[in-house]
Amino acid sequence: MTRLGGTNKVNHVICRRCGRKTYNPDKGYCSHCGFGRSSKIRAYVWSYKFKRKW
């Protein structure tokens, strides 16, 4: 059983490519742009509507 105040692990840090706080040092890649996993920017068809709003 864990204490309620014992969850302080940082899972995501700032990504060098996209600048967002979505790079996971344990997995070694960014969940937003795919840095560390692919040389191409991560993009899916289902996310185009969301990316258009930015």
From TrEMBL:
Biological process (GO), any one: translation
InterPro entries the UniProt entry points to: Ribosomal_eL37, Ribosomal_eL37/eL43, Ribosomal_zn-bd
Keyword Cell wall biogenesis/degradation assigned: no
Any one GO CC term of the record: ribonucleoprotein complex
GO molecular function: rRNA binding; structural constituent of ribosome; zinc ion binding
Keywords: Metal-binding, Ribonucleoprotein, Ribosomal protein, RNA-binding, rRNA-binding, Zinc, Zinc-finger
Keyword Ribonucleoprotein included in the entry's annotation: yes
Main function: Binds to the 23S rRNA.
Family per similarity comment: Belongs to the eukaryotic ribosomal protein eL37 family.
Protein name (record): Large ribosomal subunit protein eL37
UniProt organism field: Nanobsidianus stetteri
